[in-house]
């Protein structure tokens, strides 16, 4: 499967919406462009692209008369063929490249973590310690590639291209990944990044006890033209959720933020833990 770009994902979602509004079945739409129903589903899922003539035929089938909308969708079909900067890292897992494509397109990411520092906030040393501890025992070359990619991804935040809301359990701040020196550097870096206007950090303190989703980390990606997506990383595979599941996660995230310390109080906690837990 080709790595879907965010443009393909958005285009596919738009086509699915237009087909459903036109009350046309997947089989009927597929027949209109002479592909199988499974191929059309892959197009609607953003897994494969669609060429201009086939897209035009679908829009005709769906009775889409809006000239501006047609032009926009045709433009998206052309852009969907573009390769992102991450394409040169061919050894990266397919699902990871897919996520990077969506992340690169997002306007905002709300990331909730229970165990580790969110990837977009990790220092090089912290990221290296995390990657090196992988269950598959990666080679030094694989570790370096993953660290390089993670640092490249962070430019979205440091260059102000992305709004980041990072909510994390207090446990994230105490866990000594890489040792005391690495953690001191990591917490210091978080304090510096929190000074950026596009970054908000909040910590859920231990005193809150049990709370919603405390056993599951997830990220909500807000895309310019929708639909928004929830990404859930798991040991046995990654999951993308759309539709009603996204709204459910948004509700949970709002509850988590309400349970968390304020951004200013969270930064004070980070400073305190840096000075008490991570002394050499």
TrEMBL record:
Q: Which SUPFAM superfamilies match?
A: lambda repressor-like DNA-binding domains
GO MF annotation, one: DNA binding
All copies of domain HTH cro/C1-type, residue ranges: 15-69
**Which Gene3D superfamilies does this UniProt record tie to the protein?**
lambda repressor-like DNA-binding domains (1.10.260.40)
User: What name goes with this protein?
Assistant: Transcriptional regulator with XRE-family HTH domain
Q: Which organism is it from?
A: Actinoplanes octamycinicus
């Amino acid at each position: 499967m080709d790595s879907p770009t965010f443009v393909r994902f958005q285009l596919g979602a738009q086509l699915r919406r237009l087909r459903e509004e036109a009350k046309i079945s997947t089989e009927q739409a597929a027949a209109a462009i002479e592909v199988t129903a499974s191929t059309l589903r892959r197009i609607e899922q953003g897994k494969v692209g669609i060429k201009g003539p086939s897209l035009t035929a679908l829009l005709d089938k769906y009775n889409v008369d809006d000239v501006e909308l047609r032009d926009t969708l045709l433009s998206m079909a052309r852009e969907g063929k573009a390769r992102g900067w991450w394409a040169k890292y061919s050894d990266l897992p397919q699902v990871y490249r897919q996520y990077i494509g969506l992340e690169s397109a997002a306007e905002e990411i709300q990331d909730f973590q229970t165990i580790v520092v969110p990837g977009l906030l990790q220092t090089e040393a912290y990221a290296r310690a995390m990657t090196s501890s992988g269950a598959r025992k990666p080679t030094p070359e694989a570790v370096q590639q993953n660290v390089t990619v993670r640092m490249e991804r962070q430019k979205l935040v440091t260059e102000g291209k992305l709004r980041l809301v990072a909510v994390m359990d207090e446990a994230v701040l105490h866990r000594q990944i890489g040792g005391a020196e690495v953690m001191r550097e990591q917490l210091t870096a978080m304090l510096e990044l929190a000074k950026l206007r596009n970054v908000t950090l909040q910590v859920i303190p231990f005193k809150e006890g049990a709370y919603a989703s405390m056993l599951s980390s997830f990220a909500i990606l807000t895309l310019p033209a929708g639909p928004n997506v929830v990404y859930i990383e798991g040991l046995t595979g990654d999951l993308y959720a759309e539709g009603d599941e996204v709204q459910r996660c948004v509700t949970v995230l709002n509850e988590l933020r309400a349970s968390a310390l304020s951004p200013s109080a969270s930064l004070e906690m980070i400073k305190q833990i840096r000075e008490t837990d991570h002394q050499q």
